[in-house]
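Quick check before the chapter quiz. The format below is the same one you will see on the exam, so make sure you can read both the input and the output lines.
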Amino acid sequence: MISNKTRNTARVIVASLGMLLSVSAVAENRSVTYKYGDKVDVIKVLSISAKDGSGCKPVDHRMEYIDSAGKKQVLNYRALPKQCHKGR
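Here is the expected output.
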């Protein structure tokens, strides 16, 4: 039979490990804002999303991608909306 003290210690260890893993996952997905001339290490683009914009003015975009180390990264940047490229 396992004592209450041992069970409580095991629970604390498991909870601490869970918190540590979740904090490292959050830290790994921090976004970076692109500045002109920055080098971007993109192996695979996972998604690109953009805020709606009216007219042909730059809007905020967000790209999620995998870098050469295999880590998921997030890049924020500004670009013209799609409707500007369609001749509207």
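If your answer matched, good. Residues 4-85 form one domain.
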